[in-house]
């Protein structure tokens, strides 16, 4: 198993190169096909317009978004032509409230979605719902690359955040194409339960599972010395000089949409390295 289809989502003409760069690096490393979804975003809130003006204002906003989508696609195609990779582009118009449908349709048929960190100065409000749609509705693994992090497409040292949850196990299974290339894999367990079937060997069954896939893993058992688990994980990633963190993504339902839970968001907001997630 390997990554054969990589998806990137581009929503701003000004950031086309920066948005595509991580996805290009991953697609090149694995010889994968790269799909780019080029979205022109209609940010109109028709409730702000007086009665009778909404239809006109909405059409103008859609026309602007359609033109923006075309410009993004043209810039994306130019960048991908120069890469020499196999690729495809789609230009679409989406309203903020309907982003999920457009992204999820593409993410469902991708082996990996590579996205920039959605938080920080200058980041558009559409980036977080794009990530959430790919992760929760598209059920695709996500590689989130912070602006300041160095991306190693075939990481040599990977840290696995392990808490025996279904989400963590799904993320680890989805990351096997990465894990097989790594020289060192650290299974990180924080304050394992004192009562339970794995209390005497926390992480042992996971290490055995990975070994049968040709992945050698070490187990790091840590104490919860900080209030947030995410802070412990980020500190340990820096301490061991990890190239990437693999973790489960946790969310909760709000108005029928799954959104990132606090622990997942905290991990992403100040991630020192790229984060591979699955739900």
Question: How is this structure best described in words?
Answer:
With 279 residues, the chain is α/β, with parallel strands linked by helices. It folds into two domains: 5-145, 3-Layer(aba) Sandwich (Rossmann fold); 157-278, 3-Layer(aba) Sandwich (Rossmann fold). The chain has nine helices and twelve strands. It has helices at 16-30, 54-83, 99-107, 127-137, 166-174, 176-179, 204-211, 229-239, 262-269, and strands at residues 5-10, 33-42, 87-95, 112-116, 142-145, 157-161, 184-190, 217-222, 244-248, 251-254, 257-260, 275-278. Strands 3-2-1-4-5-12-9-6-7-8 form a ten-stranded mixed sheet, with helices on both faces. It has a two-stranded antiparallel ribbon with strand order 10-11. Strand 1, helix 1 and strand 2 form a beta-alpha-beta unit. Helix 1 (16-30) crosses helix 2, helix 3 (99-107) crosses helix 4 (127-137) and helix 8 (229-239) packs parallel to helix 9 (262-269). It is globular, with a radius of gyration of 20 Å. The model has no long low-confidence stretch (mean pLDDT 90).
In short:
This protein has 279 residues and is of the alpha/beta class.
